[in-house]
Amino acid sequence: MLIESLFVTIVLVVISSIVWTTLVLGISPMPSSKKAYQGVLELIENTGTGPIVDLGSGWGNLVIRLARTYPQRQIVGFELSFAPWLFTLVMIKLLGLKNLKVHRKNFLNIRLNQVNVIVCYLHPKAMKAIQDKISTGAYQTEYLVSNNFALPGQSPEQTLTLTDFYRSPVYRYKICEDSVTQSPPRTTKRF
């Protein structure tokens, strides 16, 4: 009886956390497909050696892959929902990932300085908010890689079109000031 009560309590806390965060942010923690993870990892190649930040890191699926793929780089995740954030913390400890940190914060309320790459899988309203942050200098970054949703007012440096059912795009934007003279966007079909 005690174990069942504990289990029910844990399930209710997880569900409540996800529902509350969904109401606050307008989106629930949603994992990407394996093809999308591969696309994001490909677009992060050749982006330097600086920090990679995942805005809305959810259950940690991407940040854990990033930490394993780039052990020499600092990986940081931001997730507001309690249950996914806690799950990711546990996985970091179990896997011994020293280059990965996750914060339970709303990424729209922080400044990001000296970030090499921002990664996200959000919704159009959040992408607009990120664009606003970039334009005011609150997010100082060189690249932004976005799964599925475009950054308004920007042309991607490169676009991968996944071979999934929806032909989902993964975008890479060059954000730093010299991006005005960038070469024409490339589109590649992958995965």
UniProtKB/TrEMBL annotation:
It catalyses: guanosine(46) in tRNA + S-adenosyl-L-methionine = N(7)-methylguanosine(46) in tRNA + S-adenosyl-L-homocysteine. The chain crosses the membrane at residues 6-27, 75-96. The keyword Methyltransferase applies. It comes from the Bacteria. Its EC number is 2.1.1.33. Signal peptide: none annotated. InterPro entries: FAM173A/B (IPR026170), SAM-dependent_MTases_sf (IPR029063), tRNA_(Gua-N-7)_MeTrfase_Trmb (IPR003358). It is an enzyme of class 2 (transferase). The keyword ATP-binding does not apply. Pfam families: Methyltransf_4. Keywords: Membrane, Methyltransferase, S-adenosyl-L-methionine, Transferase, Transmembrane, Transmembrane helix, tRNA processing. Catalyzes the formation of N(7)-methylguanine at position 46 (m7G46) in tRNA. This is tRNA (guanine(46)-N(7))-methyltransferase. It comes from Litoribacillus peritrichatus.
